[in-house]
Design a protein that fits this description.
The complex is a heterodimer. Chain A is an all-alpha fold. Chain A has one domain. Chain A has 6 helices and no strands. In chain A, α1 (2-29) packs antiparallel against α3 (51-73) and α1 packs across α5 (86-96). The radius of gyration of chain A is 17 Å and the shape is globular. The termini of chain A are close together. Chain B is mainly alpha-helical. Chain B has one domain (3-127). Helix content of chain B is 77%, strand content 0%. Chain B contains 5 helices and no strands. Classes of the chains: A mainly alpha, B mainly alpha. Chains A and B meet through α1, α3, α4, α5 and α6 of A and α1, α2, α4 and α5 of B.
Chain lengths: 124, 141
């Protein structure tokens, strides 16, 4: 079980790290000027040249691969609910890295997800 | 059909598509990985698993469904509010557990159901938020 928990932590940290890097990178790049093909190509080119996107891609790939490994080890009724722990890391990342505001209600949600994940893992 | 009815129907359809794609994708990944057996955390073990996943049609079909999920999600939030679309994601955790029991014949004990229920409620609470609290609508310097 400890193997599953460690892989779950890796899955969530790499996935959330990748998503935060994409969000940060895309906010620096800005929105496409329009949805015409030429503007979209320019937007894509800016994304390709952004270091943040290249930092994010291997993290997202590692996250997907670790999901596959998890599914080879544990039942899906454990892996998928436990993967909701990414909301905990996501809110922490949003608060401390992206400097977003987090309301009391969201913290309550984070606490419930945490308890739920602990319960699910305890059945493994 | 009025504009509002059309919008509601369009959104419901997209949300349904999201849920179907996400559930089918994850179930197919699980089935594919079960066909391959447990992955060993060694360099040859990981490499062998990587090559096997590339050759496994069930895994590719799962990936295709997950791409479908991403596309339908992006399409839905392009007109609908995130807070309208998000509950589907939360209930997805419950639905996938139900499907795991019905389709993959997994055994889910009461404690796990309780955990899943807490997760669904928690995710619903986390999702209740304003779409932008940082005001970063324009490009950062």
């Amino acid at each position: 079980m400890i193997k599953v928990i460690l892989m779950l932590i890796f899955f969530i940290c790499s996935g959330t790290g990748g998503e935060i890097a994409v969000t940060y990178g895309m906010k620096r790049i800005g929105e496409p000027e329009s949805f015409r093909p030429r503007a979209l190509l320019r937007f894509l080119w800016r994304a390709v040249r952004s270091g943040w996107v290249w930092f994010a891609l291997p993290l997202l790939a590692a996250s997907f691969y670790s999901l596959l490994i998890l599914l080879s080890w544990a039942p899906i009724s454990l892996v998928i609910p436990a993967s909701a722990a990414n909301y905990i890391v996501g809110v922490l990342g949003a608060k401390y890295i992206l400097k977003e505001e987090v309301t009391a209600r969201r913290w309550l949600g984070v606490g419930m997800v945490f308890l739920g994940v602990i319960l699910v893992l305890a059945t493994g | 059909m009025s504009h509002e009815h059309r919008l509601r129907f369009k959104t419901m359809f997209m949300v349904l598509l999201m849920v179907v794609c996400a559930s089918a994708g994850d179930l197919l990944l699980k089935r594919g990985m079960s066909q391959m057996g447990a992955v060993h955390i060694t360099v040859p073990g990981l490499w062998q698993a990587f090559l096997s996943t590339l050759q496994n049609p069930t895994i590719w079909l799962g990936i295709l469904f997950l791409i479908g999920y991403t596309l339908s999600y992006m399409t839905a939030v392009s007109w609908a509010d995130y807070s309208y679309v998000m509950p589907a994601g939360a209930f997805g955790y419950a639905l996938q557990t139900v499907l795991a029991v019905l389709i993959l014949r997994e055994v889910v004990v009461a404690k796990r159901w309780a955990g899943v229920a807490l997760i669904v409620l928690g995710v619903l609470l986390v999702g209740q938020t304003k779409p932008s609290t940082t005001g970063a609508a324009q490009a950062m310097p």
